[in-house]
Specification:
The chain has 465 residues and is α/β, with parallel strands linked by helices. The protein is built from 14 helices and 23 strands. The strands form six sheets. Strands 1, 2, 3, 4, 5, 6 and 18 form a seven-stranded mixed beta sheet that branches.
Length: 465
């Protein structure tokens, strides 16, 4: 028998979890369909396992480089299987608390297990059952993109969906793809004692970030022993003497393990989009400025809609979609979405790069930069390899880029400044705690304030002789 709901959510990853709780607290009748584990990519294949791995890698690196802090360096004894067990322990802790099915069922959300398919503008079919609903929210996420390479399937490979399921990792890796996932894991693997070659097709790692900072990060990875290869075209994969061998025009690389981190593709297969008239393209489900698809009762958010492929963006979009469904007025999702690659140091990004600002604003664009070597906190912690770069338009901040410890924490002050159109010098009015890395932002703002004051030096009152 068909059931009647206010909202049916398809996919219980980052966006689905937020939408389910929001809708339940509004007193709406909610069903959530999930064919796999509650928590989605973030919990099981993305943010949580990768950051847990990187925490272990950072601890190993600190031991190995302890002389920076006046302590004897110690080469850590690393049990890879134990590190991978801890990853699963952290996942299970979250899965049994914040992301537990019981928690959502207690809110009144009906969890429906199985694969969903749109059966009409107001209906979702799941394993022979039809869920009738006022609105549908599609948040099925994305999957790792796998390039068509001769021999790849036969050789065998890992992606972010499988690498954390290993009992223990291989002793060496070839990583294909120099985006956030590939770059983070290449550094993490290396710090945990594995040999790593990182192959990137483009001219630099992390091509969406500030070029100068990505170059510094690539140099850091090389210093730590990662074989970073840029402008590398991978042509085929073979297995030789038990090793996976990757061939390109520029050379060959072999290792025990192969990780493919070549981007993401929207998870839309089997949803029945065409049958109900929901348009989709290469980037995913097409949505309007209010996250509504070509069928007015069906919305799509997160990776499946292809705007920004980040957990935090998906969660924010879920809130916007629900407000547009059930409240008067029409909200729009944020266009200013920051992100951070959690290497060490971290690389955070918001708004325009310096070159993008110059292309858009011409002579009105300029850059303001400060090295971490000027930060007392960075000196104290022996973490001076970094820089803050701001893109400005007539002193207003239009882009912010930070290569520094905890850059993902620092970026939010600058995101607010970009969103509110705040001039750099005005940030000097905010008193920053000393000693922190964020004091560097205050120093940049102070320099801008002094330059502005110098324009009016004729007004300075001087004591008469």
């Amino acid at each position: 028998m068909a059931a009647r709901y206010d909202l049916v959510i398809v996919g219980m990853g980052s966006a689905g979890l937020v939408a389910a709780e929001f809708a339940a607290r509004l007193g709406l009748r909610v069903a959530a369909v999930e064919s796999d584990r509650i928590g989605g990519d973030c919990l099981w294949t993305g943010c949580v396992p990768s950051k847990t791995l990187l925490a272990a890698a950072r601890a190993a690196h600190t031991m190995r480089t302890a002389e920076r802090h006046g302590l004897p360096a110690v080469e850590p004894e690393i049990d890879h299987a134990r590190v991978w067990r801890r990853i699963r322990e952290v996942q299970q802790e979250i899965a049994s608390t914040d992301d537990s099915p019981e928690r959502y069922e207690a809110m009144g959300v009906q969890l429906v297990r199985g694969r969903a398919r749109l059966a009409g503008p107001h209906a979702v079919a799941v394993e022979g059952r039809t869920l009738e609903t006022r609105f549908v929210l599609l948040c099925t996420g994305s999957r790792p993109a796998v390039p068509e390479l001769p021999g790849l399937a036969e050789a065998g490979f890992e992606t972010s969906e499988s690498v954390f399921e290993l009992e223990a990792p291989p002793a060496s890796w070839v990583v294909i793809g120099g985006g956030p996932i590939g770059t983070e894991l290449a550094q993490g693997f290396r710090r945990l004692g594995m040999d790593v070659s990182l192959l990137q097709r483009g001219t630099r790692l992390l091509p969406r970030d500030e070029p100068e900072l990505t170059q510094r990060l690539a140099d850091r990875l090389r210093d730590e022993g990662v074989d970073v290869q840029l402008e590398t075209s991978v042509e085929r994969v073979e297995v030789s003497n038990g090793k996976k061998v990757v061939y390109g025009r520029e050379g060959r690389w072999e290792a025990d393990g192969l990780l493919v981190a070549a981007g993401r593709t929207p998870a839309i297969a089997g949803l029945g989009l065409e049958e109900v008239g929901v348009r989709a393209g290469a980037r995913g489900v097409e949505v309007d400025a209010h996250l509504r698809t070509s069928v007015p009762s069906i919305y799509a958010v997160g990776d499946v809609a292809g705007r920004y492929l980040f957990t935090h963006s998906a969660a924010a979009e879920a809130g916007v979609a629900l407000r547009n469904m059930f409240f008067p007025g029409k909200d729009k999702p944020a266009e200013l979405v920051p992100w951070c690659t959690f290497t060490d140091p971290e690389l955070a990004h918001a708004g325009l790069t310096v070159s993008e600002a110059r292309e858009r604003y011409g002579k009105d664009a300029e850059a303001a930069t400060i090295e971490l070597t000027r930060s007392d906190r960075a000196r104290a912690e022996a973490e001076t390899e970094g820089r803050i770069v701001l893109a400005l338009r007539k002193d207003k901040i239009v882009g912010a880029h930070i290569l520094a410890p905890s850059a993902g924490e620092l970026i939010h002050e600058l995101v607010l400044a970009i969103r509110k159109g705040i001039r750099l010098r005005k940030l000097f009015e905010l008193v920053h705690v000393y000693p922190t890395i964020s004091t560097s932002i205050s120093m940049l703002a102070g320099e801008a304030a002094v330059e502005n004051a110098l324009r009016y030096r004729r007004l300075v009152r001087k004591e008469s002789a």
